[in-house]
Amino acid sequence: MLGLVVPAVLSGLTTGAIYALVALGLTLIYGVLHIINFAHGSLLMAALYTALFMNLRLGLDPYVALPVVVAIFFCAGYLLQRYVIDTFSHGRDANILLATLALSIIIDNGALYLFTSNTRTIDVPYAFEMVEIGPAFIPLPKLVAFLAALVFAALLWLLMRHTRLGAAIRAVAIEKRGAELMGIDVKHTYAMCFGIGTACVAAAACLLLPTFYVTPQVGYAFVLVAFTTVVLGGMGSLGGALVAGLFLGVVEALCGLFLGETLGQIGIFAAFILTLLFRPAGLFAPRVA
Amino acid sequence: MRRLGPGEGVVGILLALAAISPFVLPSQAWIGFAVNAVLISVLSIAWNVTGGFCGQMSFGHAALYGTGAYAAAMLQLRLGLNPYLAGIVGIAAGAAMGGFIGALAFRYGLRGSYFALVTLAFAEVLRILASSFEITGAGSGLTLPFRPGLANLQFPDRYAAYVFVLILCILALAVSAAVKGSRLGSNMVAVRENEEAAGAIGIDAFRVKVVAMIISGAIAGAAGVAYLQIQLFIDAPIAYGSLISVEALLGPIIGGAGTLLGPVVGTVVLHIVGEVVKTGVGGAPGLNLVFYGIVLLLILRFLPNGLMGLAGNLRWPARTASAARSAEAR
Amino acid sequence: MLSARGITKRFGGLLAVSDASIEVAEGKIVAVIGPNGAGKTTLFAIMAGFLRPNAGTVTFRGARIDGMAPHRICRLGLTRTFQIVQPFAGLTVRENIACGAHLHHAKRADALARAAEIAAQVGMERMLDQPAQDLTVAGRKRLELARALATEPKLLLLDEVMAGLIPSEVAEIIPTIRRIRDSGVTILLIEHVMQAVMSLSEEAYVLNQGRIIAHGTPQQLVRDPQVIEAYLGHGAAERLHAGHPGAQAHA
């Protein structure tokens, strides 16, 4: 029994780290803009394709391509927020939600048109290398993804706590008007935030690619898990997203072990709905009477 | 009470012309397109009751649509129920699912992004459940045996199917108009505009929102039943897929959320755009949806009140005139 | 008609209202006055069901209403307005008022007709088809009043309907409120504009730091040293008496 559970938990943790990384971007955007970015999964899919083609056409290893993809998607995120989402929604909350939905429709179906629905993968020499951890064998790329995701989370934390930009982002998140009066460029800060959030997704894509596949629909599955992670961790909480991401990875792995693959996902959604209903501020949020 | 203005009149006439066009210009492609557009219009009308009148934006109306379709299909296949009875139960099941999701979500005060997310999650849970169990046909879906005839609520050709969905659409519009012109409709709008202020003037916001979900669920369930009776096949991605949820909200947003004809106008225009793209570029998958997304963005940018907002501009002078007349009459 | 006894409300460590009791008799215009942050709006919110008190009871026409949902209290005949007006911005004046009128009129036609009558009562008959978002501050205050009135309350709680109005607008709205009372609606109001309190109300309570510190006719209250101190600070009453007695009228 334990022989099955421990590997499942470890494998769940590695998946969870990726969930956490995707969710970090989403929760950062939510925490500051107070909207849910429905295009988040689509951007993950786009980043996966970018890394895929860098590998197929240029022969770049995903890990090598990571800084480039991250840079590209940071810029893309910045521009999308500043010149598409903000402009097209007139800054109204309901419209921002719909604008991100429109973007996701465009990106998803654009990918479907350009790349067809074929599933694609890349070949890397280390794909099947295993690392022995206690009773379990973990694929090397998954271990790398796990560690790298933690590093990114730490970097993000440093950025938020110890840089001018981080201070500006936190100020805008708490009180947009006040921040504006203090001379902070709110539109720029929003766009930086969206850019950083998108960069997280790009990093997740590069870490994911060696052991995963790419289809135009791949983002959808991830974004639902990311929503769950964000809600579970408390919308806008970076630390919460990290813990919740790891937790959900484990829940999914265990549900998969005991209930089978498809029903395993139910565990995640059940957690999602229950949290939304009973603790909409997140599991780790202090309870307000 | 309020008469239709010239803007709404023009839109109504255009819609009526569009509705009879398949009979004037018979073509297999055109009628197939029309059946689909009218069916999605019914779903849009359903979304508009909650999203438009009541201001609760759902991203998971597939949960209601799919429940109607699955309930009707299972009752016919597993219990051999008469299709009409099964259809009525399907509508009731959609209403019940709407009431259930609404009661849960609103009991805990979910609004805005949170409500959008929880509805999406419910649709997703139902999709996974429907694709996992034998009773719902699991991965292979449910197929009704082809037995055309009025007694079986099945249609010998697409023209008969079209008449059926057209009647359904008119009924849905009638329900929507009745709601909009009633105390309930006024309460819904008050809740949409400001829930706290609505409470202060005696409106039970929770009840109003749940009732909106029930009515919306019934209409969406009817659309699901209609799809089943026309296509004779459903599976989890068709019934509960995110595409249905997206299509449900695109029509009202583009046509004008909260207006009576907006959902239909939006859906029809959107489908025409999709069709034009298809004929222009060939039937490549995805491309029409890319244009749906672009149309949505453009509407948000340039017509935040939707196409009916544009028609509403026509109405303005005439409306004050009629208001002045009714003031004189007293 | 309305009786609030021993109302206490805490927000975390802050005691917003402490052991406050108020009685409102039928047919009266009663005012609650007090400096900013005295807890007036909190007290109103408790009486209208928007907040639950930590202690105390509210009885309205013989029924306990503390902790009851706002819409149920409204249906019993107690309607409040908001200090920060909350019009249904996307609707016209007529539609706004009709939303309130629907409480007792099921048919849309009846509700709309009733809305026009009530608009005339508050002097808005010319603005019926204006979108609420285009109204001036004074217009919005009137709309807030009209929408509450449309629910046909027995008791109307008015939260600073005159704040932000210029003197001529105040002078216009005072007779409107008096007419409403004369039509049979009891009125409890929170007010900052002393001119309004003095000329409108027969009875006033003074709330300071969450406590009722005085109760009487407005004329009595403006001479009460405790009240003057609450408004002008410690020792103010003595200084006023020593200096120029005429200054009391400004308090």
Automatic annotation (TrEMBL), chain A:
<feature type="transmembrane region" description="Helical">
    <location>
        <begin position="38"/>
        <end position="58"/>
    </location>
</feature>
<feature type="transmembrane region" description="Helical">
    <location>
        <begin position="64"/>
        <end position="84"/>
    </location>
</feature>
<keyword id="KW-0472">Membrane</keyword>
<keyword id="KW-0812">Transmembrane</keyword>
<protein>
    <submittedName>
        <fullName>Branched-chain amino acid ABC transporter permease</fullName>
    </submittedName>
</protein>
<dbReference type="Pfam" id="PF02653">
    <property type="entry name" value="BPD_transp_2"/>
</dbReference>
<dbReference type="GO" id="GO:0006865">
    <property type="term" value="P:amino acid transport"/>
</dbReference>
<dbReference type="InterPro" id="IPR001851">
    <property type="entry name" value="ABC_transp_permease"/>
</dbReference>
<keyword id="KW-0029">Amino-acid transport</keyword>
<keyword id="KW-1003">Cell membrane</keyword>
<keyword id="KW-0813">Transport</keyword>
<comment type="similarity">
    <text>Belongs to the binding-protein-dependent transport system permease family. LivHM subfamily.</text>
</comment>
<dbReference type="GO" id="GO:0022857">
    <property type="term" value="F:transmembrane transporter activity"/>
</dbReference>
<feature type="transmembrane region" description="Helical">
    <location>
        <begin position="266"/>
        <end position="285"/>
    </location>
</feature>
<feature type="transmembrane region" description="Helical">
    <location>
        <begin position="96"/>
        <end position="116"/>
    </location>
</feature>
TrEMBL record, chain B:
<dbReference type="GO" id="GO:0005886">
    <property type="term" value="C:plasma membrane"/>
</dbReference>
<keyword id="KW-1003">Cell membrane</keyword>
<dbReference type="InterPro" id="IPR001851">
    <property type="entry name" value="ABC_transp_permease"/>
</dbReference>
<feature type="transmembrane region" description="Helical">
    <location>
        <begin position="85"/>
        <end position="106"/>
    </location>
</feature>
<feature type="transmembrane region" description="Helical">
    <location>
        <begin position="113"/>
        <end position="139"/>
    </location>
</feature>
<keyword id="KW-0812">Transmembrane</keyword>
<dbReference type="GO" id="GO:0015658">
    <property type="term" value="F:branched-chain amino acid transmembrane transporter activity"/>
</dbReference>
<keyword id="KW-1133">Transmembrane helix</keyword>
<feature type="transmembrane region" description="Helical">
    <location>
        <begin position="159"/>
        <end position="179"/>
    </location>
</feature>
<dbReference type="Pfam" id="PF02653">
    <property type="entry name" value="BPD_transp_2"/>
</dbReference>
<dbReference type="InterPro" id="IPR043428">
    <property type="entry name" value="LivM-like"/>
</dbReference>
<feature type="transmembrane region" description="Helical">
    <location>
        <begin position="7"/>
        <end position="24"/>
    </location>
</feature>
<keyword id="KW-0472">Membrane</keyword>
<feature type="transmembrane region" description="Helical">
    <location>
        <begin position="210"/>
        <end position="230"/>
    </location>
</feature>
<protein>
    <submittedName>
        <fullName>Branched-chain amino acid ABC transporter permease</fullName>
    </submittedName>
</protein>
UniProtKB/TrEMBL annotation, chain C:
<dbReference type="GO" id="GO:0015808">
    <property type="term" value="P:L-alanine transport"/>
</dbReference>
<dbReference type="InterPro" id="IPR032823">
    <property type="entry name" value="BCA_ABC_TP_C"/>
</dbReference>
<dbReference type="InterPro" id="IPR051120">
    <property type="entry name" value="ABC_AA/LPS_Transport"/>
</dbReference>
<keyword id="KW-0547">Nucleotide-binding</keyword>
<dbReference type="GO" id="GO:0016887">
    <property type="term" value="F:ATP hydrolysis activity"/>
</dbReference>
<dbReference type="Pfam" id="PF00005">
    <property type="entry name" value="ABC_tran"/>
</dbReference>
<dbReference type="Pfam" id="PF12399">
    <property type="entry name" value="BCA_ABC_TP_C"/>
</dbReference>
<dbReference type="InterPro" id="IPR003593">
    <property type="entry name" value="AAA+_ATPase"/>
</dbReference>
<dbReference type="GO" id="GO:0015188">
    <property type="term" value="F:L-isoleucine transmembrane transporter activity"/>
</dbReference>
<feature type="domain" description="ABC transporter">
    <location>
        <begin position="2"/>
        <end position="234"/>
    </location>
</feature>
<keyword id="KW-0067">ATP-binding</keyword>
<dbReference type="GO" id="GO:0005524">
    <property type="term" value="F:ATP binding"/>
</dbReference>
<dbReference type="InterPro" id="IPR027417">
    <property type="entry name" value="P-loop_NTPase"/>
</dbReference>
<dbReference type="GO" id="GO:1903806">
    <property type="term" value="P:L-isoleucine import across plasma membrane"/>
</dbReference>
<dbReference type="GO" id="GO:1903805">
    <property type="term" value="P:L-valine import across plasma membrane"/>
</dbReference>
